[in-house]
Amino acid sequence: MVNSLNKFSDSDKKRKRIRDLLSEDAEKNIFGIVSYAILKNHYRQTKVYFGYNRNAFRQYELQLFRTWRMNASDNGIDFVMRPAGRIFRVKDAGRYDEYLRDIDSVNHFPITFVVKTNSTSKQVLRELFAFIRQRGDVMRNVEEQYRDAIEEIITINELRKWLNDLSDKDVNNVVRDLKNCYREETGGRVLFGE
After folding, report:
1. What is the spatial distance between Cα 137 and Cα 171, in angstroms, rounded to a whole number?
2. How far is it, in rounded angstroms, from Cα 90 to Cα 92?
3. What's the pTM value of the predicted model, to 2 decimals?
4. Tens digit of pLDDT for each residue in 7-20?
5. CA distance 6 to 23
6. What is the pLDDT of residues 138-171, one digit of tens each?
């Protein structure tokens, strides 16, 4: 399925193929790369303004960088956003103890979880907060620190919506980014076909 993306000249067919890769059954590394390519092109549409005083603002496009490799079990940060300074972690649904370990590993810096689930982000957040409350060893102030460290939950639903919202040019950019990620991971071999 992945190899066939370049066979299509129609952006809608490319979108459908990419959407098919966004499933709960997808291999986590594939899901992570597809998520990255969609998020990179989604966020690039957003302009932000930074400056050291109100008269010296500069406009920037949000940029997303992938900071992990497939098959690396480093429990690190998966994506970082510049210049906003956001960090992202790709996760399977459930296993909320791993989410808390990720929060601990970045010293409770706000983190966005990209979750491989068809559940809504609100449902994942409710389950995660319930898990935090159920932990007997978490005191109230620590519970609040965990809650405050969760910047956003992104699920398959948001990724599919944002993919649909991308222009045809950006869908082609998603395909290009997917090819580049695989090329990096495979030492130059192309898995998407030329």
Report:
1. 46
2. 7
3. 0.88
4. 566 888 999 999 99
5. 21
6. 667 778 889 999 999 999 999 999 999 999 999 9
Identify the residue whose tokens are 């010296």: 56
**What does the DSSP assignment read for the chain?**
-GGGGGG---HHHHHHHHHHH-STTS-HHHHHHHHHHHHHHHHTT-EEEE-SSTT--EEEE-EEEE---TT------SEEEETT--EEEEEESS-HHHHHHHHHHTTT--EEEEEE-SS-HHHHHHHHHHHHHH-TT--HHHHHHHHHHEEEEEEHHHHHHHHHHS-HHHHHHHHHHHHHHHHHHTTT--SS--
Distance CA 68, CA 175 (A): 19
In angstroms, the Cα distances linking 182 to 43, 177, 186, 189 are 21, 9, 6, 8
